[in-house]
Amino acid sequence: MSRKKISIISGISLVAIIITGLIFSSYSALNSETDPGNPTAEQNKQIRQEVTPPPIPEMLTFAGEPVPLDNFDVRESLDRELLVNTYFHSQTLLFMKLAPRYFHIIEPILKENNIPDDFKYLALAESGFNPKAISPAGAVGLWQFLEHTARDYGLEVNNEVDERYNIEKSTVAACAYLHESYEKYGNWTTVAASYNAGRRGIDREIERQKETHYYNLLLNPETSRYVFRILGLKTIMENPEDYGFYYKRKDLYPIIPTKEVEVDTSVENFSDFAQEHGTNYKILKYFNPWLRDTTLVNPEGKTYEIIIPKGKYRSY
To answer: Thinking of the domain 61-251, which architecture would CATH place it in?
Structure first.
């Protein structure tokens, strides 16, 4: 076949391909509105998840103290934490599921010790509702106590018993610490900041900057975000639907009925102890993470209250 004929055939083939493509494109365009497998641009827009800025409340307080949202830096700092916690769906939803289980323990203790209820969100910001949380600095438990601070506030810390992991006792100790801070600073917002930075850290910045309130202080990056993280969590968890979180009561983790068993002697084996009380070692440790060993020598004959779920709690 001559080169001329090949060239003509190639040209005809190219034209045929172009025409076929145009016909197919026109057909697709005509049928896109009715073809569910080929959504229009408008349909695509509806299918995509909308990502919008979370609402910033008109007014907000912490422990009864107003948050100065008219200050641009305060407003933008709050906005950052609302963004982070609104769109960290899994973590924030988990916090909501866990909240009843921990708040029902923390709230009455705060009230009994005259600490504002909002400080329950400080415990959440500290540990993420993990009573066994350990920080890189060695702070432990729901309220993240360092060992020497825990002992200063009456918590027992040794190889067998570490009451930093005891929710009730560590909450009482935290209340004592917070009261001392309030006597020093006179406002709960700065008290909350001092829980993160330490009183010495806050005192140093107050002296250097000649300012006395958290919202007017330039602090280290962690403490600068700290109170706003608490405020963000409080705002979202108290108004979940405003931030796109929808759940039913049955979705929340239930409060497990428990009883207290007093022990003032040694315990040779907590696995045996658990089974004698209708549970197992795993569940015993879940409710009593402050028991740090498999045994309890208890040479001084102290009385400890060990929490046991009511009724039989053995799956197999």
So the answer is: Orthogonal Bundle (1.10)
